[in-house]
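Thread: zinc ion complex, take 2
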Amino acid sequence: MSEKNATAEPQNCPQCGAPAEVRNPKPRRWFVACTKNSELASGHRVLGHPMFTKRDAILEWNKLS
Ligand SMILES: [Zn+2]
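Output below.
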């Protein structure tokens, strides 16, 4: 898959297979997170690297799998 044709949708969590969600908590900060993430430090916590754009955030996330 080339960068140009990369999908705009995040893949499922590479660790647990749950759907991932794109988050945009503030301008120019996008990242993808597993929907099964736990707030506990010892819990399941899978985050993609934060990026300036949604597309880049999804690309970073998809590299995890
Ligand atoms: Zn997960």
